[in-house]
Specification:
By secondary structure, the protein is an alpha/beta fold. It has four domains: 158 residues, Molybdenum Cofactor Biosythetic Enzyme, Chain A, CATH 3.40.980; 59 residues, Molybdopterin biosynthesis moea protein, domain 2 (Alpha-Beta Complex), CATH 3.90.105; 85 residues, Molybdopterin biosynthesis moeA protein, domain 3; 73 residues, Beta-clip, CATH 2.40.340. The chain has seven helices and 28 strands. The strands form eight sheets. It has a six-stranded mixed β-sheet with strand order 7-4-6-5-9-8. The protein has a six-stranded mixed β-sheet with strand order 16-13-17-21-20-18, with helices on both faces. Helix 1 packs across helix 7 and helix 5 crosses helix 6. It is elongated, with a radius of gyration of 31 Å.
């Protein structure tokens, strides 16, 4: 049995590079960018009008001129026109090119237009106001989005404006999620008294969807020969196998034995933590195997605590570390790392974690009442005091 710290170190030393693929930019939300995005032109590419109104030469306003004859209109999307008489003005629309011989825009709210004359009604304006100068946001060749950025709606807009119709992103691993156990039936079935519906696989599917990782699911009965046959095929076809159940010491917990017979290199089995102690991790040359215990909370926390950091490192992302202040005294006697479910709140600018009561690692329903796990360290001490700060793993 190894420590949580050693287990995580082992997992992070076994990351995979899944390569890079090029996909349509509009399909890339949530994916990890694998190239720098640079400006293909200045941003904005011209002196851009930022208010509907009139464009003038400021020097005439400075010399106390307030009435300006309108020469024409500069519409958004039209070629740049020129103010022929410098003491006149041109009506301009938001997004239009600033006309030649103009340097300042006065919004319509500050003018009155009568018989082709724009009369300025305010006493003060600033030179070059309401003009978004060429290149102010970025020069041609400037890096606009760094590599390894998670693409969001904000990045989509930038990709569009630089003409990046296809973008390079990290390939996602091919993942199979496997549940085991004869006591499990389908979601749409009515379980007998000795049965329960399958839930862990769907929790794992959803946890992977948060990372935009597609997955497939399978259920295998507690028959060693069937387990071995199916897993042998999965090891050849998938980059990652996530198992829920059959890794403890029960009579029908065949997975560790099957893994050994199939040539899986066991990197560890059992971690000094609660919940999730019987966790198995191993690999072949092409596949990583995460064997999570079958209790729902165990599966949930181990996916967050181990698979998530493994995935982040595999695709070049930094795992975000966060801490919170414990909001109540906690007593925990076993000398194990304890993942305690907590509700999170901000008080006086500090993140505070309030423990919730649950009924052990099988209490699936308790997950909906919490926001995160707070990680209390393995120590000879049995009491953790209110006001102490500890790492957390959010799931909301």
């Amino acid at each position: 049995m190894i420590s949580v710290e050693k287990a995580l170190e082992t997992v992070l030393n076994s990351t995979q590079n899944f390569g890079v693929e090029e996909i349509p930019f509009i399909k890339s939300v949530g994916r990890i960018l694998k190239e720098e995005i640079t400006a293909d032109r200045d941003f904005p590419p011209f002196n851009r009008v930022s208010m509907d109104g009139i464009a003038i030469n400021y020097s005439y306003f400075k010399n106390r001129q307030r009435d300006f004859k309108i020469e024409g209109i500069q519409a958004a999307g039209s070629k740049q026109i020129t103010l022929q008489n410098s003491d006149n003005c041109i009506e301009v629309m938001t997004g239009a090119v600033l006309p030649n011989n103009c340097d300042t825009v006065i919004r319509y709210e500050d003018v009155i237009i009568k018989k082709g004359i724009a009369i300025i009604t305010v006493d003060e304006i600033n030179a070059c106001q309401n003009v978004h100068n060429k290149g102010k946001d970025g020069k041609v060749g400037d890096v606009l989005i760094e590599e390894n950025t998670i693409i969001s709606a904000a990045e989509i807009g930038v990709l569009a404006t630089v003409g990046k119709s296809f973008v390079k992103v990290a390939k996602q691993p091919k993942v199979m999620i496997v549940s085991t156990g004869d006591e499990l039936v389908g979601v749409d079935e009515i379980p007998l008294e000795h049965q329960i519906r399958r839930s862990n696989v769907f929790t794992l599917v959803s946890l992977l969807e948060r990372l935009h990782i597609p997955s497939e699911i399978a259920h295998i009965t507690d028959d060693k020969s069937i387990l071995k046959s199916k897993i042998e095929a999965y090891l050849q076809e998938y980059d990652v196998l996530l198992f829920s159940g059959a890794v403890s010491k029960g009579k029908y917990d065949f997975l560790p034995e099957v893994f050994e017979e199939l040539g899986v290199e066991k990197l560890f089995h059992k971690v000094t933590q609660r919940p999730g102690k019987p966790f198995f991790y191993g690999k072949t040359s092409d596949c990583n195997i995460f064997g999570f215990p079958g209790n729902p909370i165990s599966t949930f926390v181990n996916c967050l605590a181990y698979f998530y950091p493994w995935y982040y490192k595999s695709v070049g992302l930094e795992s975000k570390k966060e801490t919170a202040i414990l909001n109540a005294d906690v007593t925990f006697k076993p000398n194990l790392t304890y993942y305690l479910q907590v509700q999170l709140d901000y008080k006086f600018g500090h993140l505070v974690a309030t423990p919730i009561k649950g009924n052990g690692s099988g209490d699936l329903a308790s997950l909906v009442n919490a926001d995160a796990f707070i990680q209390l360290p393995k120590t000879e001490e049995t009491e953790f005091k209110k006001g102490e700060n500890f790492p957390i793993i959010r799931y909301r």
